[in-house]
Design goal:
Pfam families: Glyco_tranf_2_4. By secondary structure, the protein is α/β, with parallel strands linked by helices. Helix content is about 35%, strand content about 20%. The chain is built from nine helices and ten strands.
Length: about 290
């Protein structure tokens, strides 16, 4: 295997994310990435969730790069990740929120070799939303997430019309768009050479509470409204769950839910979903 620049996982981890963090760290270690540039976020240092989060970091042997306290906003997430990557701008970064677990068509270091040979500076992909059996919103526990949420599909896009495209691997010098839904310029690896499955463990027991908090905070001005789609998407998701007895309607063909493990070839509709996600690329040209 040819030598490539170092690779790190970069993520902003919120005070509510302690249960997901051990799964997140284990996953990326299992695919060959053992350097973590985590930034913890909480309202203030006395936040009970922040204390649990620091305990979770210690339990998996990861020392956070930084902690940031204060009100949340999406552009803060973008700025904190840019800060973490700016310290070593020629290195590679796996960019993932704590509920985003990448699955690659090739081992990650082979993917980076392709980038370095071709001059590409980032690799894109799209969401595969993970769902509990029958569409149930299950609490995250010690059970492996792939077993606890055995279905996957285009849930975020199908319900909320949320942008599915994500930039998942990037050189530290490349500027990311908000939510790492693309880059400002740069040279992406062609999809035929590598396109990331971003397995998205958003639809858990706490999602209703989190989305109601988001709508309330944005509507009341506690969080700055940087993109009105955030309110629209959350309201659409809450309406869907209310209409289906607190579950996701996994029988809706628009959501494309199907059994899925953790192998790149597992989802029967993956190629169709990736084709559709690429069709959203025009939205990134603003």
């Amino acid at each position: 295997m040819a030598s490539t620049s170092p690779v790190h996982v970069v993520s902003v981890v919120g005070s509510q994310d302690a249960a997901l963090l051990p799964h997140f760290v284990e996953h990326y270690r299992s695919i060959g990435v053992d350097s973590f540039r985590l930034i913890c976020h909480a309202g203030d240092p006395s936040d009970e969730g922040y204390i649990h989060l620091r305990d979770a970091c210690r339990s998996v042997g990861v020392e956070p790069l930084h902690s940031h306290f204060g009100p949340w906003r999406d552009r803060l997430n973008q700025k904190l990740k840019a800060y973490a990557m700016s310290r070593r701008p020629d290195d590679w970064y796996v960019v993932a929120d704590v509920d985003e677990f990448h699955v690659y068509s090739h081992p990650v270091h082979e993917l980076l070799e392709k980038c370095e040979r071709s001059g590409a500076d980032h690799v894109n992909g799209c969401f595969l939303d993970r769902v509990g059996a029958g569409g149930e919103l299950l609490e995250v526990d010690a059970t492996p997430l792939w077993k606890r949420y055995p279905l996957a599909g285009a849930v975020s896009t199908g319900i909320s019309k949320a942008l599915p495209l994500k930039t998942g691997v990037v050189r530290g010098r490349v500027e990311l768009l908000v939510g790492h839904h693309g880059t400002v310029g740069g040279n992406g690896l062609p999809r035929a050479e590598g396109f990331i499955q971003v397995h998205h463990f958003k639809w858990t027991e706490s999602v209703v509470r989190r989305m109601r908090h988001r709508v309330d905070s944005l509507s009341r001005g506690r969080w700055p409204v940087e993109h009105y789609a955030l309110i629209r998407e959350a309201k659409a998701a809450l309406a869907h769950l209310d209409a289906n007895g607190g579950r996701i309607d996994v029988d809706d063909p628009e959501l494309r839910t199907a059994p899925c493990g953790r192998d790149y070839t597992d989802h029967s509709l993956w190629d169709e979903m990736a084709d559709e996600a690429e069709g959203w690329a025009w939205t990134l040209t603003y």
